[in-house]
Design goal:
Elements: E1 5-6, H1 7-13, H2 19-27, E2 31-33, E3 36-37, E4 44-45, E5 51-53, E6 56-57, E7 65-70, E8 99-100, E9 109-115, H3 118-125, E10 133-139, H4 145-153, E11 156-157, E12 160-161, E13 166-171, E14 176-182, H5 189-195, E15 201-209, E16 212-213, E17 222-224, H6 227-243
Parallel strand pairs: 9-15
Antiparallel strand pairs: 1-4, 2-3, 2-5, 5-6, 7-9, 7-17, 8-9, 10-14, 10-15, 11-12, 13-14, 15-16
Length: 255
C-alpha cells in the first residue's frame, strides 16, 4: 500500500506554496482530490491520488536538493521579465519544478540551494531556524581586529541592530579578506555591515549554508545533496527552531 500523507503537506512539498497557505486554499474550496473538491484539513492522500490546487495539477516528482555555486550576474529567481540569466537556467536538463531557497544578490556569487521541496525550503528560510551562512568578502581598505570585535557583537544598521556573528580576518591590509558567518537574511546585509565602517565590498562569495560547503565546486556547477545531508539539514533547522535561540559556535559540530 502506498504511504499516505496529509493533503496540506503534499501541497507544501510540491513547492507551490507554504503549508499554512495550503490550509487556507483547502478551506477555501480551492483544492480537488481526484477531481472532487476537498475542504477538510488533515485528509490523507497517496502518491496515486490526483491533487489539483486552484487549477494546477501537482506532479508526483522526486524531491531533490542541489547545492549550486551561483556565478556573478545571475538572478536568484525562476524567471526574469528583462531576460537576464536566472539560477534555474542551469538546470534545464531536469524535468522538476525547481526554485531557489532564499536569495543571493545579483553581484554576489556562491552557495545557494535549489530544490522542488517547498516544505524543506520554508523550513530553511524561516528565521527561527537560525541557519548560519558563511561569506568571504574582499574589501577595499584595511579591516582590523577592533572592527571585527564590534561587528561580532552587533552593529546598528538602518533596519536595526544585527545579531551576534562570527568574524575571521584572513588578510588585513590595503585590500582585506574577511570571513563572516551570519544567520540573518536582511537585504544586502553583509555589504551594509562593512559600509558601517566606511568600507566597500569589492567581491563577495557565500561559501557555505549550515554545514553544506562549496569546497571545490566551480562557479556555475552544482551537485545533488545526499539523503543524509538533507536529513541533517532538516534536523539542524528543527533543533534550532525548538530551542528558539541562536546556537553558539561551540554548539556547532559541522566545522
Amino acid at each position: 500500500m502506498e504511504d499516505k500523507i496529509r493533503l496540506q503537506k503534499r501541497i507544501a512539498a510540491s513547492g507551490i506554496c507554504s503549508r499554512r497557505k495550503a490550509e487556507l486554499l483547502i478551506t477555501a474550496n480551492k483544492v480537488k482530490v481526484n477531481n472532487v473538491i476537498c475542504n477538510k484539513l488533515g485528509t490523507l492522500v497517496s502518491p496515486l491520488d490526483c491533487v489539483e490546487v486552484d487549477g494546477t495539477i501537482l506532479t508526483n516528482e522526486e524531491q531533490v536538493v542541489f547545492l549550486f555555486n551561483k556565478p556573478l550576474g545571475v538572478l536568484s529567481s525562476v524567471k526574469d521579465d528583462r531576460g537576464r540569466k536566472v539560477v534555474t537556467d542551469f538546470f534545464k536538463e531536469y524535468p522538476y519544478r525547481l526554485f531557489p531557497v532564499g536569495r543571493l544578490d545579483y553581484n554576489t556569487s556562491g552557495a545557494i540551494l535549489i530544490t522542488n521541496d517547498g516544505e524543506l525550503a520554508n523550513l530553511i528560510m524561516h528565521p527561527s531556524s537560525h541557519l548560519e551562512k558563511t561569506y568571504v568578502a574582499i574589501v577595499n581598505e584595511c579591516f582590523n581586529q577592533e572592527m571585527a570585535l564590534k561587528m561580532e557583537k552587533g552593529i546598528l544598521l538602518s533596519d536595526g541592530m544585527t545579531a551576534p556573528c562570527k568574524v575571521k580576518i584572513i588578510r588585513s591590509g590595503l585590500e582585506s579578506k574577511v570571513e563572516i558567518s551570519i544567520h540573518e537574511g536582511r537585504n544586502r546585509q553583509v555589504r551594509r555591515m562593512f559600509e558601517y565602517f566606511g568600507l566597500a565590498v569589492k567581491s563577495l562569495t557565500r561559501t557555505s549554508i549550515g554545514f553544506i560547503k562549496l569546497n571545490d565546486l566551480k562557479r556555475g556547477a552544482y551537485r545533488k545533496l545526499t539523503n543524509s545531508e538533507i536529513e541533517m539539514l532538516k534536523n539542524l533547522c528543527l533543533i534550532n527552531k525548538k530551542k528558539n535561540v541562536i546556537p553558539t559556535y561551540k554548539e556547532k559540530n559541522f566545522g
